[in-house]
Amino acid sequence: MHSFTRLPDLALRSHGGSVVAASDESFADKECLIRPGRPAFQAETFGSKGQVYDGWETRRRREPGHDWALVRLGMPGVIRGVVIDTAWFKGNYPPYASVEAAEVAGHPSPAELAAATWVEIVPRSALGGDAEHHFKVDGDGRHTHVRLNMFPDGGIARLRVHGEARPDLSVYDGLGLDLAALANGGLVTACSDEFYSSPNHVLAPGLARHQAEGWETARRRGAGNDWLVIRLAGRGLIRLAEIDTTNLLHNAPGWVSLTGLDGDRETELLPKTRLQPDTPHRFRLRHTEPVGQVRVDIYPDGGLARVRLHGILA
């Protein structure tokens, strides 16, 4: 597994992504490309379009050209790597694919996107059937959309676009925001343990539907406690912390504390405080110096569904 897969999937549907257009989707819907989770498959399940696939599949092309799909990133940002997954497509996968990216302001239509300036981030590369293909992406450009090209036709189950969110925070001028949210540029940069699930899940949009959509550690058998460090969207003053243990009925931490980090300075934001299982907790904070990171300590171990740190950019 490449290290970039630890970063959030900027295109994921549950992160706000959308497949806004495709050249063709005769056999299977383009929207499947950015669904959460692994692709599913059941043999000999036929619908009006043929075998049912949990992916995007085009018709057999009889004329020159190639198929493509336009994806709006739910979280615009810097792309560090792409995964093209042909899971379950064994006799109908495309032999080659490439990926382009663009930065387009506002809310462009498919026609406006087609006229945009695109840069190639994954060159035309060979694909195999029923396999994940990982492509590291270099460069620090900010992008809002990607275009997946497959040559000439076929089926692709999933497209993952991993990177770091770089949203336009100017829309929040004069307003508060969640300084920890992935969508606003927050990111977990360090973590004591992620045995069961990724710590970045706690910063994802929406509510966790089950335990796997939060962060959960292994059972701690030694001294100490588990923790994670969140790089905020920007230095700021946090006024409200939400610590959510929803879905964690028998594995919630007993307590939590929050510490603000800014260079060599540490600021206690929330002292060690008792938590309840399966409960959203809200705590008002009253620190006076801005912080750039927050360490979340849970005692002794367990899981969190979400962490929200609402405040004002410094």
Please, what is the CATH homologous superfamily of the largest domain?
Galactose-binding domain-like
CATH topology of the largest domain: Jelly Rolls
What is the straight-line distance between the termini?
37 Å
CATH class of the largest domain: Mainly Beta
Count of helix runs: 1
Mean pLDDT level: 95
* Outline: globular
SSE arrangement, N to C: EEEEEEHEEEEEEEEEEEEEEE
Q: Proportion of β residues?
A: 35-45%
Q: Tell me the major beta sheet.
A: 8 strands, antiparallel
Q: Count up the domains.
A: 2
- Poorly predicted runs are none
Nearest-angstrom radius of gyration? 21 Å
Helical residues, percent: under 10%
Structural class: mainly beta
The name of the CATH architecture of the largest domain is Sandwich
Q: Count the E strands.
A: 21
EC number: 3.5.3.4
Domain Allantoicase: 16-165, 185-311
Catalytic activity: allantoate + H2O = (S)-ureidoglycolate + urea
GO molecular function, one term: allantoicase activity
In short:
By secondary structure, the chain is mostly beta strands. It has one helix at residues 110-114, and strands at 18-22, 46-47, 50-51, 56-57, 67-85, 96-102, 119-126, 132-136, 142-151, 155-156, 158-165, 177-178, 187-191, 215-216, 226-244, 255-262, 265-274, 280-284, 291-299, 303-304, 306-313.
